[in-house]
Specification:
Length: about 160
């Protein structure tokens, strides 16, 4: 995809961001590490094309553990939008002195594992049964995920933004 800008989301993009989250997660709520997040309340980066259309969004939260990417979605995968959004989030973390960017994906999401590892994130932990627990907070999470893989665990990936000494 040619010609898009990554920047902080503004109020005018809210409906388009919500539509992307509806498509990917069935609404504004995602559950990760036993926490239910309302992504509408999180800082959001958007990728906007030359026609001012939202073509991707990334939500995140910051704490002492670093910058956690909570959601990342591109309207059309494969055009560089996800890479640009992840790069922008990594820059925010580095510029604010956070030691890492991290995120969680589910054990069935092989496409995401490939995407994140190719962009320098490393698998650092498996939380066995985390998706099973998440169904208590979001019962609509399916039992079977992508490629017919039973959906049970969360995989934690990270990229260090500063060298470990």
């Amino acid at each position: 995809m040619d010609g898009f800008e990554v920047r902080a989301a503004g109020p005018a993009e809210r409906a388009a961001i919500d539509a992307l989250h509806e498509r990917e997660w069935g609404g504004p709520y995602v559950v990760a590490h036993d926490t239910r997040h309302d992504v509408r309340t999180l800082p959001t980066l958007v990728a906007v094309d030359d026609a001012a259309e939202v073509v991707g969004a990334l939500t995140y939260r910051v704490d002492e553990d670093g910058l956690e990417v909570v959601t990342l979605v591109a309207a059309v995968p494969g055009g560089g939008v996800g890479t640009a959004l992840l790069s922008a989030a990594t820059s925010i973390a580095a510029e604010t002195g956070l030691a890492r960017v991290w995120l969680i994906t589910s054990n069935d999401n092989l496409r995401a594992l490939r995407f994140y590892q190719r962009r320098g994130l490393r698998l650092v932990r498996v939380d066995r049964g985390a998706v099973d627990r998440a169904r208590q907070l979001k019962p609509e999470i399916p039992l079977v995920g992508e490629d017919g893989i039973p959906l049970h665990d969360e995989l934690v990936l990270e990229r260090r933004t500063v060298a470990e000494g």
